[in-house]
Structure to design on (98 residues):
């Protein structure tokens, strides 16, 4: 069951919004912007969307993983994803229970 939650500076933790580690989520967040050879006065942070599995939640940030893998001959699981500062999250939506 999908759910949408708007996130504010005084937002509850992810678990209080019934989103748990392991759930597939969509996160809309304000991202920093690297620009080059552009008019600096026209640059602002962008709002972008990422989709992945919620791997971790703490008071300041969430960790979103979109790929887990092991290297040949290695049993250590490695991941690719994002750590997102909670105050930059605009919307957090559960897409599927973990």
């Amino acid at each position: 069951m999908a759910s949408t939650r708007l996130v504010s500076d005084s937002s509850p933790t992810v678990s209080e919004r019934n989103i748990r580690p392991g759930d597939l989520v969509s996160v809309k967040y304000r991202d920093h912007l690297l620009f080059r050879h552009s008019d600096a006065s026209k640059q602002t942070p962008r709002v972008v969307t990422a989709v992945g599995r919620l791997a971790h939640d703490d008071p300041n940030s969430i960790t979103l993983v979109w790929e887990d893998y092991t290297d040949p001959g290695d049993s250590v699981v490695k991941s690719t994803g994002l750590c997102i500062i909670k105050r930059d999250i605009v919307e957090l939506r559960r897409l599927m229970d973990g």
Residues 3-96 form a domain with the SH3 type barrels. fold (CATH 2.30.30). The chain has no helices and six strands. The chain has a mean pLDDT of 86. The beta strands are 3-6, 24-31, 46-57, 61-69, 78-85, 89-96.
